[in-house]
Amino acid sequence: MDQLFATRASRMKASEIRELLKLLDQPGIISFAGGIPDPALFPASEFAQAFQLALGPKYQSQALQYSVSEGYVPLRQWLADHMKQIGVSCGIDNILITSGSQQALDYLGKLFLSPSDTALVGWPTYLGALAAFNAYEPRFDRLSINGNRRAAEYRAGTGDIKFAYLSPDFANPTGETVDLRSREALLNLAEELDCAVIEDGAYQALRYDGDPIPPILALEISRKQSIEKCRTIYCGSFSKTLSPGLRVGWVVAAKPVISQLVLMKQAADLHSATINQMAVHRVAEACFETHIPMLRQVYRSRRDAMLAALDQFMPEGVQWTKPEGGMFVWVTLPKGMDGSTLLLRALATVKVAFVPGQAFFPDETGANNLRLSFSNSDEKTIQEGIQRLGEVLRM
Ligand SMILES: Cc1ncc(COP(=O)(O)O)c(C=O)c1O
C-alpha cells in the first residue's frame, strides 16, 4: 500500500524519540518529559457549570448544532478584548478559532508552503511546528533569533522564504524569551525578506517574573497603525491556561489571511466544537483574570525548585536556561554526551524521564541537549528527580 501514499507521507515518520517516550508509561517514573499543564489546576468546576448551562434548555440547540467556521462570536469578542489588553488592537473579523493552536500551525503550513519553499525556524524549535510544516515539504533554515544573520545570508539559501516561525515568550523547548530589540530586528528582517512572521503565543500568559514584552504583532501594529497592513500572524491557545483537552486556540491576523484560513477550516473540519467554544468562553469570562495569577504562582514555585535543584545537583560542565515563564528548562550537556542514551540510562537506573534535545532540531543535531518540564511535578518531586538525574550524569 505505501507506494500509493503521497510524497509528503514519507516525511511524516514517527521519530525515534517519540518511540523512546512510549517507555515512559511505567509506574514510579518521575517524568519531566511532557510539556503539559498540571490537571489538578484545571478550572474543572467552572467547566462543569459551563457545560451544564450549554446543555440546558436555553443553549442546547445552539451548543449541539453546527456553527460558523470563524468561531463562536462571544468568544471572538472576548479574545479581541484580551488581545487588546496585551497590546494587539484588532476586531473580531481578525480572529479565527481553531482546534488548538496546533491546527493553526497546520493551516499556516498549508497556506504558505509549496514543496521546497523555505520556512525559517529556531534551531531548536517546537517539535509540533516542525511536524505540521513538514507535511508541506518545505526546507527549513535557521532563524537567528537575536538578529545577527543578515537578509542576504538567508536569501543565499535555496527556496522562496515564506515565513519565520517563533515562540517569543518562554519558548518550547528552551524556555527563552526574545527581547524587545530582537523582536524589532525580526520585524526588520521580515520586511527585508518580504516574508510572514508566525508568532506562537502558546505560553504568553505564563510569565513568572520580569516585565511583559509586547507581542511582535503589537509592535508591528504600532509601526503600521493597522493590523490590516501587518505580516505577523499570532497564534494563541487556551491549552496551557484553561484546558488542552477542549482543543480551543485562535489566530489573529489581517482579514485577507483570516479569510484564507476560514476556507481551509471549511475544507478540514467546518468549525471547532461549538460546545467547547461556548464553555471556554464562559470560563474565560468567569475566571481567566483570577485563574492566571494562581497558575503563575504555582508554576513559578516549581520553576524555582527546578533551578535550585539544578544548581545543587548538576555536575560541572552542565548548563541550563533560566526561563522567566512557561514550562521548560533547556539543559546543555558537555559536547559528546547523548541525550537519548542518557534517557535510556536514567529510565533504567533512577526512573527519571525527560525529552532528549535532538527532536527539536530540523537536522536532528543537538544530541547533547535535554528538555525538562517543571509544570507537572511538585517541588519535592522536582528536587528528588533532579538529584537522581545528577547521579546518572556522574555515573
Ligand atoms: C509552542 C507550542 N505551540 C503550540 C502548541 C500546541 O498547543 P495546542 O494545539 O494545544 O494549542 C504547543 C503544545 O505543546 C506548544 O508548545
Could you give the distance between the termini? 47 Å
Which percent range describes the beta-strand content? 5-15%
- What does the main sheet amount to? 7 strands, mixed
Low-confidence parts, pLDDT < 50 over ≥5 residues? none
The largest sheet has its strands arranged as 2-8-7-6-5-3-4
The helix content is 40-55%
Please, could you describe this protein's structure?
The chain has helices at 7-10, 16-21, 44-55, 60-63, 73-85, 100-112, 127-134, 151-155, 180-193, 216-224, 255-268, 274-313, 339-349, 379-394, and strands at 30-31, 95-98, 118-121, 139-142, 161-166, 196-200, 232-237, 249-252, 319-320, 328-332, 352-353, 355-356, 369-373. The protein is an alpha/beta fold and 395 residues long. The longest helix has 40 residues, at 274-313. It is globular. Residues 35, 100-102, 126, 128, 167, 172, 200, 202, 237, 239, 244, 249 line the site of pyridoxal-5'-phosphate.
Task: Provide a concise account of the structure shown.
By secondary structure, the protein is an alpha/beta fold. It contains 14 helices and 13 strands.
List keywords for this structure.
14 helices, 4-stranded antiparallel β-sheet, alpha/beta, single chain, 13 strands, 7-stranded mixed β-sheet, binds pyridoxal-5'-phosphate, globular, 395 residues
Secondary structure layout:
Blueprint: H1 7-10, H2 16-21, E1 30-31, H3 44-55, H4 60-63, H5 73-85, E2 95-98, H6 100-112, E3 118-121, H7 127-134, E4 139-142, H8 151-155, E5 161-166, H9 180-193, E6 196-200, H10 216-224, E7 232-237, E8 249-252, H11 255-268, H12 274-313, E9 319-320, E10 328-332, H13 339-349, E11 352-353, E12 355-356, E13 369-373, H14 379-394
Parallel strand pairs: 1-11, 3-4, 3-5, 5-6, 6-7
Antiparallel strand pairs: 2-8, 7-8, 9-10, 10-13, 12-13
Helix pairs in contact: 3-12, 6-7, 6-11, 12-14, 13-14
Bound molecules: pyridoxal-5'-phosphate (PLP).
